[in-house]
Amino acid sequence: MPAEAKTAAKAAQPPVRAAQPVNPPLTERQEARRRRILHASAQLASRGGFDAVQMREVAESSQVALGTLYRYFPSKVHLLVATMQDQLAHMHGTLRKKPPSGDTAAERVSETLMRAFRALQREPHLADAMVRALTFADRSVSPEVDQVSRQTTVIILDAMGLDDPTPAQLSAVRVIEHTWHSALITWLSGRASIAQVKIDIETVCRLIDLTSPQD
Amino acid sequence: MPAEAKTAAKAAQPPVRAAQPVNPPLTERQEARRRRILHASAQLASRGGFDAVQMREVAESSQVALGTLYRYFPSKVHLLVATMQDQLAHMHGTLRKKPPSGDTAAERVSETLMRAFRALQREPHLADAMVRALTFADRSVSPEVDQVSRQTTVIILDAMGLDDPTPAQLSAVRVIEHTWHSALITWLSGRASIAQVKIDIETVCRLIDLTSPQD
DNA sequence: CGGTAATCTAGAACAAGTTTCAGACTTGAT
DNA sequence: ATCAAGTCTGAAACTTGTTCTAGATTACCG
């Protein structure tokens, strides 16, 4: 009964924090450990994708005991989702510096997503590990996955140039995110070409014009 | 190196067939075994979702040795994707009997998908197992996943009432499928409500009007 | 500084997916 | 009916994610 075990109550275990806002403030050494772990995770993922991220190897690479790794990230999926948060933050920073240049919101969003897509293409294995973890995550990872989703939403709204989206616009953004994730999956598993992903993104971005024809 | 091992060449092993068209014709007893396995799989999945489908249990429930189970379905994901093909075929049959009644293609598609969604809601654990397997599937399962995708496409085109879709319409259908899968995932992992899934489906279905305004 | 609670380490142990193997059983062709 | 080839079985072994434990280390409080 591993499913039950997972939800079983535990004693104190601080290092598992929800997101950017540190839950329990980490000491410097702890912060360093956390960084080492995330770095090792990304490195192994870059090599061979989801399967190559083996918890024992991550622990060894980051010079941390296996038990400690599990204290910081309660499962492999948690670890990879955290890795994704990390990468997303990077990307958001990069994107901010060079905002998309399109005339319409739809163009800017699809330009932004295609830029992100090209970044992922440079590290396809890493992309594989992160995206598979994201879609495989069960309820126990919901808060973290949700955080990734919110982050993505912010990036898209940024590209649209919106501060105060209407509900209809938020629906469109959600649908764009769905398409983005799922299209990535089909590409990663070799069932769709890069060109097809591009078309799908451009197609779904037209929904934006549908919800804000005044732009 | 399990990744390599998985792709290693094997000797003869017929029962693994691609889809409906039997690759090597199965004997009656083999067909029966296959049915028993799929039935056990669906049954266990209905109880506890992805995690509850344990290969040893499936083997025991279906009165087949573990090795045989693996000869029929080379991995747990293959098994669950095959289970999904099975259920999809059912559903397609059911849908055919009561075609959607909406006036526009968009309405009919979203009506169809919502009907499928309600069916999934009746067996949320089974849905969980199938959808998680589908999105977690790696390249080794691509043919089977693709078959599921094609089947889904047929269902949607059916609902649209189209025989000969344009490329633009096919893109729209792909985007709808992306949204469908991803929205299901967010619902299954408790990050979106049923109402939200409904809205997302209706939103994406508007893309149809965009690609065939003459309908 | 001393003590105590929390944290970390090494390593064993466990769970479930997957592989392997020897021997029994089926099938299909002669 | 018989033989060869292919299948199925039961059981053990192997892999990797996850949990557990006992003892060392560290952080913090007075």
From TrEMBL, chains A, B:
InterPro entries, per database record: Homeodomain-like_sf (IPR009057), HTH-type_TetR-like_transc_reg (IPR050109), HTH_TetR (IPR001647), KstR_C (IPR041642)
Region (Disordered) location: 1-30
UniProt xrefs under Gene3D superfamilies: Tetracycline Repressor, domain 2 (1.10.357.10)
Low complexity biased stretches: 1-21
TM segment ranges: none
GO MF entries: DNA-binding transcription factor activity; transcription cis-regulatory region binding
Segments forming domain HTH tetR-type: 31-91
DNA-binding among keywords: yes
Source species, domain of life: Bacteria
Residues of the DNA-binding region: 54-73
Keyword field: DNA-binding
Pfam families: TetR_C_20 (PF17925), TetR_N (PF00440)
PANTHER family referenced in this protein's UniProt entry, alphabetically: HTH-TYPE TRANSCRIPTIONAL REGULATOR RUTR (PTHR30055), HTH-TYPE TRANSCRIPTIONAL REPRESSOR KSTR (PTHR30055:SF242)
This protein's name: TetR family transcriptional regulator
Source organism (scientific name): Streptomyces dioscori
